[in-house]
Amino acid sequence: MRSDRDEVSPRTLSYLPPLTGQSNIVNARQPMAPETQPLNVYNRIFGGMVSTGTNPATLLAQKLSVLTFMRSDLTRLQGLIPASQKDRLTATADSINQLEASIRQTYGMTTTGNVCTKPAMPPNFAATLTGKQMMGTSTTVYTDLSGVDYYIPNMPNSHPHLDLGLTQLQMIQTAFACDLVRVATFMWSAGTNWVVFPGTFQGSTIQGNLQSTPHHPPSHSGDSATNAWLTQINTFYSTATAMALQGFMNQPDIDGNKLIDNTIIVYITEVARAYDHNQQNMPIIVFGGKNTGVKGGTFLKVTGGSLPNQTGGTSGNRPFNDLWLALLPKFGVNASVLTNAISGTFSIGSGQPSGTTMYTGALPGVFG
Predict the structure, then answer these.
(1) pTM for this one?
(2) Number of structural domains the chain divides into
(3) pLDDT tens for residues 81-116?
(4) Among 162, 172, 145, 178, residue whose Cα is nearest residue 42
(5) Which domain holds residue 299?
């Protein structure tokens, strides 16, 4: 979570101020900050789970108990709302019935027994509170945030940052398999991160023969030696992500398939080219198994549309939102919801077009 200027962006997905009030709706809409300690994630998600695993019958009972509560709440509302709103309750009741039918079908399809086992308790990773020199200045930046962004000197293969990330991804895998949650966001590090790597890493040596350095500042140099070093860091992260994906491919899911068969994973980076922050030709990989509709083994070179000029390039590529528009139906959301939400005119930066440059429509070719 630590970054050059202690920015908000690496720590939350929303710049909106916290909402006031005590209602459940208000509390659910608070910005979510990332959790960097796997032990805290473990206690929050798995603290109350039985250690012997969860079978389909138990999960089905849990799901149906929630539907029972929802129906009882609808009955209570029947006597509270005006007649003009009765149709809405009827529609909600129909949706609950459809959901129950879907849940019964999903959990009734498998006889594989336990697919979910409580993971081992992770360690509490040691964090550091050191200051760093801000990129391009002589200023040393200190922060109140702690970070597991160091490596152990003289042991380049021992990187707590890697161990922590793989532990987090393993818990996401287990939480999915236990059907405790089905959507998660994971970030290895922010673009302006302080994650330290050895000066010689996986066969490449950074310009200046530094013993070690944070990942972000050298990304602006642009020299060939440093770029080769940065490429090895990309390889490091991609290899670790591939290890996590292999876990999804081997993990049974509740319906008898593998977890990857029911999961869509989007692997992205913050910028296309580090040294000038170019955001064109963004590399994206979409993973998904047989039930997701992802067209595997397909390379799409996406062009067309209208974008404002980017650093180091010209306009022409499609907005990133077009990919999210293509993904929305997979989560049961009509693509027009996002389109309608952002179709108004609003400023996205001085001198830049507004409104329609935020999207052109769902990106074709991702799903078959």
Answers:
(1) 0.76
(2) 1
(3) 888 877 888 878 877 877 777 777 666 554 445 567
(4) 172
(5) 263-368
